[in-house]
Give the backbone structure.
Amino acid sequence: MKTTKNILFAFLLCFSYIAYSQTLVDEVIAIVGQNMIKYSELETNYIQSRSNSNNATQTRCDVLDNMLLNKLFLHQADIDSLEVADNDLDQEMDSRIRYMIQIYGSQERMERQMQKSLSEIRSQYRDIIKENMLIQQEQNKLTGDLKITPQEVVDFYKSIPQDSLPTIEEEYELTQIVKIPVVSAEEKELVKQKLNGYRDRILKGDKFSTIATLYSDDEASARKGGDLGFFTRGTMVGEFESIAFSLQPGEISPVFETKFGFHIVQMIERRGDQINCRHILLQPKVSALSLYNAKLYLDSIKSLIDSGKISFEDAIIKYSDDDSKINGGLIVNKNTASSRLLKDAINETIDNVDKVDFNSMKQGDITSAVEFKSELSNAYRLIKVKRKVEKHTVNLENDFDRLQQIALSDKRLKIIRKWAENLIAKTYIRINEKYIDCDFSINWLNSVNKNK
């Protein structure tokens, strides 16, 4: 069954095809209300879509189908007089820029790859992000509070032909107990003294950005002279925000500590409820002895678990130093937000797993202490195979959560499709004759528009 998919804004890929699209002979190929779609936009979106392995079979007609739907959402947003506040738009832009810099490794590399300065990137994509936010507002009005019952999930599963059910590769659910090595008081004091020395140099005339580039342990911001970009409250850890938001432009904070280490911060600019700061981070170094003691500590916990004196689950709560303890120690793939890890994806989620032979492990097995790189330092953890699901055809027993999400998406799409077809009859729509024969999932040219 063919369904309409909502195109999410592919910010990261857009510039990769700017030069390509500029070589095209451009023309308007569709109009929805007052919103136009150009041939170059279709080609750019088509290439973006095909670059995603999940959409490798999409045709230009499929992509145009999705673009028409987005333009219809924009048309309705105009009718509803929806707006995007400048602060919200700036915050969304900053978030996307930070993500892109993280992906490219530095602002300089991003600008070089995109052949645009940061200010040009912001200017080029401000309107596109605004449109995307308006589309999201309209979608939320339709389906933001949508729920699905267990019975609806069962009915959806039964409606799928058995020979069309996909195969799921072997999957794991893993939990962990983490031990972060203790940093000595002497090492902390040494780091504080270094930072106070840097602060004194800056107050006497050295540039904050130069000191940050040379000495900060935050590699991402160090490449930009410590610049963190604009952010609002709730973005950083509490101790950092408390200090940063208390500063005046140009002011430099005293040395303070967060879970990431010790910082000094300089306020650059305040814009409404957003601020832009530079910082220098120094992380106290963990001694080899402290790291070794962390391993011995986990070895002793494993002995307690193996002897039955405590369960792995209780040990997570009692002994783990990681935030995952509040979620039963589950290791989550940050890219998918799922705790169900395909065997081939474990390497992307867990460091140093090449030292662990998960293939030979059974459900319930626990590794010995494995070294890894945490956000703070090298550390050790025990990993338990909470669940191991062999390769199988999708079914309700093993894949209810996955089916629930698919069923919810299907329900959402049906609501959007019905809404779209009702609105089409009241909306001016024109599509270039080259695309009239596309097998669209929505009847964009109903009898009303065909006669216009």
In short: The chain has a mean pLDDT of 86. The longest strand covers residues 378-389. The chain has 17 helices and 13 strands. The two ends are 30 Å apart (CA to CA).
